[in-house]
Amino acid sequence: TFLVGNLEIRERRLFNLDVPESRRCFVKVRAYRSERFLPSEQIQGVVISVINLEPRTGFLSNPRAWGRFDSVITGPNGACVPAFCDDQSPDAYSAYVLASLAGEELQAVESSPKFNPNAIGVPQPYLNKLNYRRTDHEDPRVKKTAFQISMAKPRPNSAEESNGPIYAFENLRACEEAPPSAA
User: Fold this and answer.
1) Residues linked to residue 134 through DSSP beta bridges, in sequence order
2) Residues 67-78: tens digit of each pLDDT
3) For residues 15 and 84, what is the distance between their CA atoms, to the nearest angstrom?
């Protein structure tokens, strides 16, 4: 899957209600003024868009395509964007995450040639499960303004997965209140 050109989302769409609540999550996203990622440098008013892809081949659902999208504007503590996820197969769903401020696309944290879990904000081994890849991961000519992750729903009894960036649908409050020190 690849994107050509710019994508501008101009309207909200209802998401597919035949997806059970157990496969709905929130993704916590923060935007920062610099690569120091200091809590005091978080930016409000950034439009965070998540484009969910339908499940991968072999997963019991629709054919692979864009499944849904949603956008949320960051507040003082980032944004929690709804998305589909799965706890049985971590790579069943994936999503592209994009951010823009006043019409300008913001750059995502790099995933290649160096991979920094601290900059991405997710500790190992959960980061491996998310399979974080900036859009230029395999081709440096591609824009650096989005990243793709596997939507691995956190396991309830897993301490390393309980601090985000993906939260179960019923844990919206935990997502909204997560401090910058959380994943």
Assistant:
1) 147
2) 678 999 999 999
3) 10
